Amino acid sequence: MKTIAAVMAASAFLAACGSDEADDETTTPDATDETSEETSDDSTDESTGDTIDYPDLSGETIDVASDWSGAEQANFEAVLDYFEEQTGASVTYQSLGNNVATALGTQIEGGGAPDIALVPQPGLVDQLVDSGDIVPVTENVVAQVDANYAETWRDLSTYDGELYGVWFKAANKSTMWYNVGVYDDAGAEIPETWDDFMSTLQLVSDSGVPGLVVGADVGWPLTDWFENVYLRTAGADMYDQLAAHEIPWTDESVVEALEILGDLWGDETLVLPGGAQRSFPDSVTAAFTDPPEAGTVFEGDFVAGNIADQTDAVVGEDANFYPFPSINGSEPAVMGAGNVAIAFNDDEATMALMEYLASPDAANIWIELGGFTSPNQNADTSLYPDEVSLAIAEQLTSAETFRFDMSDLTPSAFGGTEGAGMWSILIDFYQNTDDVEGTAQALEDAAVAAYGE
């Protein structure tokens, strides 16, 4: 079983997750007509020399589930389409929605678990290993992971010495997205510090467009806000301690982060009303619709995919990002996350798909489609569709400090359940930012219950 400390130790080295060799001649299957013609059933990635031997799986059906929907689901289904073409298998995808732990738990309890799930919570994987619901991957999958991933990613999915998962998708969740036209019209410059950020939002608001839009109806974007602020105000060591519940949520460091967020979220002159009822996708639309309803929206690199899917804005022209601002002189830091593929059986078809997900073939398809950062070292970074996507990946790999999404490291009942724990409590705080002490106490009470203390 993996401890939180082990996960933290591994995540400290995530700067090794990307490849800086953008000139590699790795091709993307199905990316263009030319590359499709060059790809055979026995696909070799030139950067590794490692061959994927796609088996004939005609007649086999593989069920896959994850939390992706909308643009992310469509892009992942394109990845699955290529596997189907190469093997003859039929792969069905189901979105588990925001409440992955509960949805997956219900399926397991009813005997209907998928063959593969790609989950965003290492804490949940830990629980599934402990309960015996998932299986270690086979030697072929291990070989792909060894060939294509930095040791840190193997460590993040290794339990009791056995590899259980493939980290397919990484996320840089320290990106602030802005409407270029709105900022230009307001005469706003890119802020580097939190004070400058607040001034920029005020300048944009004074121009006639609310400075910020927040989508908070299910709560997870608010946990990302908190984690970014806390990482910058309390530092990486305290972040690790809070994630492991070695310090209480009533600690002064938590109170300080909540006060900073309260000053922002509670300022009606800066924030577009309705955040507690607005979904995250709707917040992206609000910032990049025509005419725009707000100038800025915070969330991870996947915002690029939402912009492309939901609006007519062009990433890199109408939409761009800047790093989450420094607070109190904090050094550059990234809070990130990802989805790890885990298997509920070791059937040939299931393990063939796991092997594929660990290969550059799979990563390259989604890289080119956008809204995706791959932890696969041998993925072709030249395929990132624009300079913005590449800059996001480089920010992730060059950050002086990286920490994994705290809510994903905690027990699911506290950090990953809709209507409960951090999600619910931070929604309440968003609606009543005056109650900082009460919010800290509510978080501590929920953490004690979830950690079984």
UniProtKB/TrEMBL annotation:
Enumerate the PROSITE patterns for this protein.
PROKAR_LIPOPROTEIN
Q: Where is the composition biased (Acidic residues)?
A: 20-48
Q: Where does the secretion signal sit in this chain?
A: 1-22
Q: Which Gene3D superfamilies match?
A: Periplasmic binding protein-like II (3.40.190.10)
The answer on whether this UniProt entry bears the keyword NADP reads: no
Chain residue ranges for the region called Disordered = 17-57
Q: Which UniProt keywords apply?
A: Signal, Transport
Q: Which InterPro entries match?
A: Bact_solute-bd_prot1, SBP
Which Pfam families does the record match to this protein? SBP_bac_8
Top-rank taxon: Bacteria
Q: What protein family does this chain belong to?
A: Belongs to the bacterial solute-binding protein 1 family.
Q: Which PANTHER family match?
A: ARABINOSE-BINDING PROTEIN-RELATED, OSMOPROTECTIVE COMPOUNDS-BINDING PROTEIN GGTB
Which protein are we looking at? Carbohydrate ABC transporter substrate-binding protein
Organism in which the protein naturally occurs? Flaviflexus equikiangi
Q: Lineage in the entry?
A: Bacteria, Bacillati, Actinomycetota, Actinomycetes, Actinomycetales
